[in-house]
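Fold it.
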Amino acid sequence: MATDFFLRSGASGLGGAGQRALSQRRGGISTQVVTNTTASGTNIQVTASPAGQVLTWFSEPLTAGLTISGTVTVNIRGAESANAVNAGRGILIERTNNAGTVQSSIVADTTVPTTIGEFTTTDAANGAATYTPTSTAMTAGDRIKVTLKIRNVGTMGAGTVSISHDGPAASTSGDTYIRFTEDIRTDEVVEVPFSEIYGSNGYRS
């Protein structure tokens, strides 16, 4: 069974500056993070706000070991402030230990999709972006780390790029996620909204 991880706006369990949650549950309201682009820039880490804190996303610790070797699908929604910004999407996916220290790359720093496409000036998803990862043996307690990048499409211009994430539904603003082929289990505590509780002990998935 494939596993989706959604980029959330809340803090990760690590609690460090700019370390946000990579969750197996969607958010409730689409949120934007905004990154400055620079003239002739090439590979800029996404920030919370223009010239603000750089961001990374961490899963909760895995509850069991497994090997990640199947395809990884990436969907990043966003927009650039003007056509002259000439910016596209990039990503780096890594294995870390429980403390968040990087152990190895799962998907090396790459454009999204592999043949990069430029953002438009309205929020939209990238084209099909599926990768063959480096076969990675994960152990219980490891985490998955995701770093989003803003990459050049031709010569980058000065402006901004907004990434939307933490949204509640597929194929709309905020639907930014990473999909692994494997069934990945973490010790994430699932918060069930009151509206999804039925009776005394049931909830709708």
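The longest strand covers residues 102-112.
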